[in-house]
Amino acid sequence: MTVKKTEPDISRSLHGEATAAWLERFDGRDLATHGSCKAHLVDGLARVLKMRTAMTLASIDKNASAYARLKARTQVLDEIISGRWFGQMVADPLYSPCGEALVDNMHEVIEARIDEILGPAADREKAEPVAADRLLDIENFALAVRLALISSLKDLENALLDLERMIRRRSLDMAKAEATSTSSNARTLNQFGNAAERTLRRLKDGRDRLHQINYFGSRAQGIEIARVLSVVTNLNLRTGEDGGNSSLDFIGTSGLLKELGVELGRMCQGMSQSMHDQRQNVDYNRDSLILLDMMSLRLIGDDLTVSLALQRSVDGDSNPAMALAATTLLTSILSITLALRHFNKTGLRQ
After folding, report:
1. Are the beta carbons of 329 and 302 closer than 8 angstroms?
2. What pTM does this model have?
3. CB-hemisphere CA count at 13 Å for 299?
4. Which domains does the chain have, with CATH numbers?
5. How confident is the model at residue 183, as a pLDDT?
6. How far apart are alpha carbons 167 and 287 in whole angstroms?
């Protein structure tokens, strides 16, 4: 599942009154979630809506008035997944606790684009939207967040694997070059590689747990949701024995990221000390090391934000701040991934 974000088509506006109302409440665009984080959420919402649309299409007659509109909706969702119309998603996820602002924005863009495909709505009866398709409930938004986390964690794992391989290669080169066994350079680097390997293994286990989706209604419905969504996302999704709990899963993911931050922080501190030890001949890029250390600290601090956001009611209806937890998690993952990639390129000098 690859998330794409292309240059926006700003020749016209596809969003409408509901989006304008959200923007007015928050004085336009003062809040600004990280663009890549928002792209992951938009992609996740599009895939969940595509799954819902596919299930609805399978249950109605092809001659029904809503059939053509649902087919057009599938086309629009494919356009969004391919990276189009991202510039039309102007409402920030943080405008609302459970992503309602971004969902309203996305729904209006989809409906306006469908009208462009099918022609003026005034000449025909407009099909009533399916309630589940609006994705206004926290469970569906949480499902989209789950998909976004799976995608972003995969990128993080790849960066962490590259780090481990780079450290292992450098450790072997140093071991071969050392004339005596008294130097600890190779052993120290190898310990860092062991830490990266352990953390990578835990992250993979955590991402695998995210493939077990929560569902609502009967277990048979949950199995069907997992089946159709697996086709839409090209992921191997499944259901558990019970409906599951997205908040607990996300808190668990945050805990794993905190552990990663601790491990990377220790590695950065060890490398920093080596730079000041004249007996060591390992040359690190100071700027890359500092960036990685700071992003590691961010992982540790963001764990508290995620935990608090998912454990308290923020709107009087017992709904947690799911949008805050989601954007915090995704921004943390994207930031540490970028820091790791930068360190992998420049961190260890030859």
Report:
1. yes
2. 0.84
3. 27
4. 17-134 (1.10.275), 142-204+244-346 (1.20.200.10)
5. 54
6. 18
